[in-house]
Amino acid sequence: MLSNVLLGVPALPDSLKVDGRELFGRMMRSPEFDPYILSAIHKLRETKRFRIVALTNNYSAQYERIRDTPPSQQGEHKFSPEAELEFLGWGESTGGPAGVGIRALFDDFVDSSVVGSRKPEPAIYQYACKANGVSPEEVVFLDDLGLNLKTAQKLGMRTIHVPIGGSREAVQQLQQLLGIQLLDSEIRSPNLRSEGRSKL
């Protein structure tokens, strides 16, 4: 059997520490935004008929440790919902597409690390509905994961799957469901299949 040294393969570390919060934060702060979803959000907001709510899972272990630490001992990592939104690139001061803060695109931002429940647990969906004064039957829920969609369906929400590289088709389904033109013909198709998930 050939050893890793003979093959020129570096040895694997004995342990690997991954900071889930930082990893998720880097993904969320990415400058890449899905143009189809972004266009749909803008057009829905223009109608003034809908509430646009972001429902996101976040990593809570570190938040809980920071939150439970006395402020005098928190150092630079002081916990607050506002600070976490800034960390994720969703804060009011964070610049985004068209010169607006990403957070400003939404009427509400439901963060699992703040709420204490995460998708696909029913509680976070129910919390979002109650906080925004709607019933599940009034909601159209879009997500890229089937597990998250199944819970929404069980609660009575209409759902649309947004697979990687399939955001245009998802927005087409949404505009058919709502009877509103959400797609612009001049939007260039992003190469999302090769780049992975988009943020919005």
From TrEMBL:
InterPro entries: ACAD10-like (IPR052898), HAD-like_sf (IPR036412), HAD-SF_hydro_IA (IPR006439), HAD_sf (IPR023214). Keywords: Hydrolase. GO terms for molecular function: phosphatase activity. The keyword Lyase does not apply. The keyword Lyase does not apply. It holds the Pfam family Hydrolase. SUPFAM superfamilies: HAD-like. This is Bifunctional epoxide hydrolase 2.
